[in-house]
Amino acid sequence: MNMEKIIDENKQGEALVLNTNNKNTRKLFIESYGCAMNFSDSEIVASILAKEGFNTTQNLEEADLVLVNTCSIRDKAEQTIRKRLQKYNAVKKINPRMKVGVLGCMAERLKEKFLEEEKIVDLVVGPDAYKDLPNLIKEVEDGRDAVNVILSIDETYGDISPVRLGGNGVTAFVSITRGCDNMCTFCVVPFTRGRERSRDPQSILAEVNDLAEKGYKEITLLGQNVDSFLWYGGGLKKGFKKASDIQKATAMDFAQLLDLVATEHPKMRIRFSTSNPQDMSLEVLHTMAKHKNICDYIHLPVQSGSTRILKEMNRQHTREEYIELIDNIRKILPNCSISQDIITGFPTETEEDHQDTMSLMEYVKYDYGYMFAYSERPGTLAAKKLEDDIPEEIKKRRLAEIVALQREHCAFRTEEFLGKIFEVLIEKESKKSDQHWAGRTSQNTVAVFPKENYKVGDFVMVKVNDCTSATLIGEGVGFSDNN
Length: 483
Ligand code: SF4
Known about the structure:
The protein has 483 residues and is α/β, with parallel strands linked by helices. The protein folds into 3 domains: 3-148, 3-Layer(aba) Sandwich (Rossmann fold); 171-415, Alpha-Beta Horseshoe (pyruvate-formate lyase- activating enzyme), CATH 3.80.30; 421-479, CATH 2.40.50.140. The chain has helices spanning 36-50, 75-94, 104-110, 113-117, 133-141, 189-193, 201-213, 245-249, 254-264, 282-290, 307-312, 319-332, 351-364, 381-385, 392-415; strands spanning 4-9, 15-20, 26-32, 54-56, 65-70, 99-103, 123-125, 146-148, 171-175, 177-178, 197-198, 218-222, 230-231, 252-253, 269-273, 297-299, 337-344, 368-373, 421-429, 436-440, 446-450, 459-467, 471-479. The longest helix has 24 residues, at 392-415. The chain starts with a strand and ends with a strand. The relative contact order is 0.08. The chain binds iron/sulfur cluster. Iron/sulfur cluster binds at residues 180, 182-184, 187, 189-190, 224-225, 276. Iron/sulfur cluster is lined by residues 180, 182-184, 187, 189-190, 224-225, 276.
């Protein structure tokens, strides 16, 4: 399909690379909420609909079809979607032919109920049913509402080459697994994205080859739980037990996939997300140490520092096992930065459990993190079995303490860069100055420095002269030999 590359601008004024097919006449407005998986899925959807004559547009009022890729991880995320749908009501008055569809986890969680609760919605499609979109759109155009929320045991969209949406032409997501089998008691993902399955490494490699040819410099291998990637010919991860000896002998795990992609593309920066401590192996750490182009950064959600709460969350590791993994990371990858996810106020959490979380943070001193108060999610094991018994004001106070401590640790970690020189990949213009570029180090820390003769996509050696708790401030001292 001959896609034309045009440069547009998003709401933040950042340069956007939009791929359009000038034969397509229909307009698709697609917006994504939530995790990187949703943003990656929206690129799959744009590709499926490009074959149906749709080009993406940034202009809502000219859209024939509006799709919202929704998130259900917390109640607040769903409220954001409902508010957004209200906005479409106004636009529909200007553009009555516009059809509205909801995709993603909230669509999967609510199913047909979404049509009853939000009258503007014509189409409800779950994360595994995007290939059915052409049929569903026909049904809507014939005046019927359309729903497909069937979860799959083998769909990985490995045969769809994504249409890159709103990217910078430098970094891209490459999904490697779908679904999750871990059943953490607070989490809706296993119910909204189904059972775990891995994508064929050859189709992953083909996508990375294509990105390299198009000049991309960094990829993020994506999954709810990338460490449990296991390819043995297709199908559910849990089917591996019944796999044949040849399938077991030729199976590929995450460390082997990392090694394959890093070896095939030594100049491509490689990141991965999200990891689960219970599935992360030492082989992964040794593979990261072996390849300079695998970034020195691990996002390692912990959720709580209390072994008792981890048990209530059905996290398959203790505080001690998590600390042992941190110690191994520090030993094998001394320059590696680590970020966290933490939930405060989980049912039955005591002050002592909270202090366990604070002391674990003090031990690790994370580079940064994503911290939230517990939000009960309908249908999860915690919602069924545990009363949401921690008062809001206590949740808020504990969250404030954790956020404040993390801010101290962010500053501690960025100060470690002072006076040193790091390789930075330029991604865009600095938000604060059009005389400066912004990019990230291998440690995923943002750095800004004067533009001089550098350009987006360059690997530049940057001397760090100053910093805030989140950003390094420096000067370019030449191109990296990786450039
Ligand atoms: S590992 Fe746990 S928190 Fe992460 S997606 Fe799976 S069930 Fe949810």
